[in-house]
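FAQ: What does a multi-protein file look like?

Like this. Sequence, then tokens, then the next protein.
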Amino acid sequence: MQTTAARPAQDKPLRHLVRPMGLGDISQVMEVEQQSFPTMWPPTAFRREIQHNRLARYLVAVERREGPLASEGEDPPEARPAGLGRFLGGLRHVFENEAEMPPEDRRELVVGFIGVWLLADEAHIVTVAVRDGHRGRGVGELLLIAAIETALRERQAVVTLECRVSNAVALRLYEKYGFERVGLRPRYYSDNHEDAYVMTVGGMEEAAYGRRFERLRGEHRARYGEYDLIL
């Protein structure tokens, strides 16, 4: 969440969707993880988490392009392949691996993800990351909204997480949603041995927090636009 990039071209309308991570998302999710945590090893075993960890809920924020993509533009008649060439060109769009395509040419681009473990007495956010070039556009906040919504639907009254003590942007976001610093984990991060704040928000089942959450969701929509949420 450190940088703000230029917004996409207006001729390709965008709409965000947050939904459960699927196996088909893993290649793009690993791109985002590598950008966000380049020194982390081993990488997260997303396939195992999705298929075998019953406590885990992994969500992706997907940017959907509603209009035609650059690669789907209509060729002028003199440039159109004939016969077998046209047929094979059509198959390329069917079988091409989207993970190998430039981000601007993907129909659905994973722009961030978040992982939540539903423990006995709390929902714990274990990871969150946003793709380079999409930070500063409200994606991280949207993922946090989805995680809190997941906790509420699972009747969890408390959400916890760890945050780098130097990450002022993330700390402000979490505190806006009611998280408080309740502890410190010394040398928590393996890349640079930075400390982590333990943060928690409770009383989420109470009406007062519900009103606060709805107000913040409304402010996010007003600033960044509508989105779809499938949990």
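And here is the next protein:
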Amino acid sequence: MTFQDSAETFDMVLTRTFDAPVSEVWKAWTEGDYVHEWWGPSGFTAPVAEMDVREGGTSLVAMRAPDEMGGGFEHFNTWSYRQIVPEARLEFVSRFADRHGNAIDPASVGIPPGIPNEVPHVLTFASRPDGGTDFTVTEYGYTSPDVVELSRAGMDQCLDKLDALLAQTPPPTDV
């Protein structure tokens, strides 16, 4: 008799079409000035977006809750890059972190059970004939369908903010 790992995992997949070229959608995920503008669900701000987008690099991002949802509490994440194909594919592992980028247990900051310590992400970017971008984000390894839906809701709100940012003219510029 053999024993198999019975731990089932669930992935979150979300696809969007943006009315912006791949180059702009790519910048929105890789340049701090952009990330500051859209990262976090509705009502949240992104006070930290220290981007080190290179294979082996790690970015530190934070989202700050609005006063009515936690009095400005900040959640930090690191994104450690595994593979980068410019303007086509980003692969990174997301971890909850302290403000210095040290990995922490998600439960220690009130994150619900079912979110693993490391969540691999794959982002794909594809040009459309109309000049827009087909974008897909896949997050791997959640331990319950409920957590997948929680993540989907948060990412959907982030992408709504990103869509609004991409519709602005001119886009943010590096300082």
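Q: Is there any per-entry metadata?
A: Some entries carry free-text notes. For the entry above: The mean pLDDT is 91.
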